[in-house]
Write a structure and sequence with these properties.
By secondary structure, this protein is α+β, with helices and mostly antiparallel strands. It has a domain at 20-58. Helix content is 38%, strand content 17%. The protein has helices at 5-17, 32-40; strands at residues 24-28, 47-51. A two-stranded parallel sheet has the order 1-2. Helix 2 links the parallel strand 1 and strand 2 (47-51). The relative contact order is 0.19.
């Protein structure tokens, strides 16, 4: 089991209390293909987050 809403909230509260946050790499929409290639090459240290404000700005 992975837990329900109560357990998830407890985990989020614990992370907030101890200042635990994910480390990310922010990419623009036009970097998605490059990011995927890096995933395939195991060259990713952090989670990719796509900046949606860059969608359609190519």
């Amino acid at each position: 089991m992975i837990g329900g809403i109560r357990e998830t909230q407890e985990m989020l509260d614990f992370c907030a209390e101890h200042r635990i946050a994910p480390e990310i790499e922010l990419i623009s929409a036009n970097q998605i293909d490059e990011a995927w290639e890096r995933v395939l090459a195991s060259d990713v240290r952090y989670r990719f987050v796509i900046d949606i404000s860059t969608m359609g700005n190519e």
